[in-house]
Amino acid sequence: MGDAADEPRLRVLLGPTDPAGVAHNLGQGLRELGHSTETVVWEPSPFGYAHDRVIESVPERLRFALGAGRRHDVVHAFGGRSLVPYLDLVAARLRRRSTIVQYNGTDARDSAIAAELHPARARIVDPARDRNIRAHRRAAGLIARSAAVQDLELVSYLLGSYRTIYVIPFAIDLPTIDAIDRPDAPAQSGKPLRVLHAPSNRRVKGSDLIDAAIAAAGEEAAIEPVTVHGMPHEQTLAAVAHADVVVDQLNSETPGVLAAEGMALGKPVLVEMDERKLAPFARPTPAVAIDRDTLAARLVALAHDPAERARLGAAGRSYARAVHSPLGAARAATAAYHHSRTGTPGVFQVTPDGAIVQLNPSDLAHVTPSGAQRS
User: Fold this and answer.
1) Is 229 found in the same domain as 98?
2) Is residue 24 over pLDDT 50?
3) What are the pLDDT digits (tens) for 223-277?
4) Those residues with Cβ within 8 angstroms of residue 307's Cβ, 6 or more apart along the chain or in another chain
5) Phi and psi at residue 357, in whole multiples of 5°?
6) Within this chain, do residues 189 and 163 fall inside the same structural domain, yes or no?
7) Three-state SS letters, the chain
8) Amino acid 1: pLDDT
9) 162 and 123, same structural domain?
């Protein structure tokens, strides 16, 4: 990639959803590169994530969507939808603008592919949503042609719908994270280990099993459970900063945004995952792989090993800044915006320094569904 100063400046539309603040965080990085951005959402986030504009009325959304291609060079739609599905993408395509639809998880998954390839996720994917999910994937793929995801698990759901798929890093809010006053040292042996779990959805995150594992670990080590739910994002980050260990989730194939935030705050993060399904640029991760059967024992081991907690925390802090910075995510997104105009089909990983590499079938064999499941 050339220097960012050599790239043309872009006007980028982000939205209409902003799961976990990743659209706003990407916008921070894009502006740092000199692009202009506008984050437009259907409704304010209950967790206090920032945005530029809320458009709730249907007539106003229609007017905005029809002018999307005139006002913006790129329409980057988050959440597997666009502001008026998919009128703004059509308006942008008619003006030969770049259009990319980003999927973050439940907006892409269907139960058949999950059952075939992703057993941990299959436990919580709702078959009742399959028809709607597939219809939106097909419709968006016919118009936008390009999709973006954060890992290889999500690639598997989109292979039959999009000509081009970019695997790009998501951004976390490092400016806010860095401003939080956090303890510098992990808890010492003999003091209770503060184990934090912050589920956005208790069923999806496997919270009942996590609570049970923390309780079981507490019978063998001094452990103080901390549960955070429904709080504004900055308060959640503050709670993470004062924890010793973060348990992200069960029922997952890859770490989520909270895991990246926990690592950025220097915390050991435990999560159910299959590291092969991470983007190649995100491997190896210092996040600790656990499942429902190993979580309690891992917590006990960490409670008795402050040196290991410190090692994992330091590794996670470096990793999160290398992989999930707003600037790195923006470099990757900018490269995808320009590349998408070529119409080149395939699955591409885009690294935080903006390098684009096409993934081979062998790279994707473990996430490629059988022909009957591709839709």
Assistant:
1) no
2) yes
3) 999 999 989 999 999 999 999 999 999 999 999 999 999 999 999 999 999 999 9
4) none
5) -130, 125
6) no
7) CCCHHHCCCCEEEEEECCHHHHHHHHHHHHHHCCCEEEEEECCCCCCCCCCCEECCCHHHHHHHHHCHHHHCCEEEEECCCCCCCCHHHHHHHHCCCEEEEECCCCCCCCHHHHHHHCHHHHCCCCHHHHHHHHHHHHHHHHHHCEEEECEHHHHHHHCCCCCEEEECCCCCCHHHHHHCCCCCCCCCCCCCEEEEECCCCHHHHCHHHHHHHHHHHCCCCCEEEEECCCCCHHHHHHHHHCCCEEECCCCCCCCCHHHHHHHHCCCCEEECCCHHHECHHHCCCCCEECCCCCHHHHHHHHHCCHHHHHHHHHHHHHHHHHHCCHHHHHHHHHHHHHHHCCCCCEEEEECCCCCEEECCHHHHHHHCCCHHHCC
8) 46
9) yes
124-150 pLDDT, tens digit each: 999 999 999 999 999 999 999 899 999
CATH number of the domain that residue 197 is part of = 3.40.50.2000
Q: How many CB atoms lie within 10 A of CB 154?
A: 26
Look at the alpha carbons of 360, 365, 369, 370 in this order and tell me if their dihedral is positive or negative.
positive
Residue 375 lies in a domain: no
Q: Tens digits of per-residue pLDDT, 155-180? A: 999 999 999 999 999 999 999 999 99
Q: Does 107 share its domain with 226?
A: no
Q: Do 167 and 197 fall within a single domain?
A: no
pLDDT at 184 over 60: no
Are 251 and 143 part of one and the same domain? no
Angle at 132 between CA 130 and CA 133, to 5 degrees: 65
Mark whether 308 and 329 lie in a shared domain: no
Give the range of the structural domain holding residue 279, as residue numbers without chain letter: 174-323
**Same domain as 178, residue 121:** no
pLDDT at 295: 99
Is 295 contained in some domain? yes
- Give the number of domains in the chain: 2
With respect to residue 283, please indicate whether it lies within any of the assigned structural domains: yes
Distance, CA of 299 to CA of 374 (rounded, Å): 39
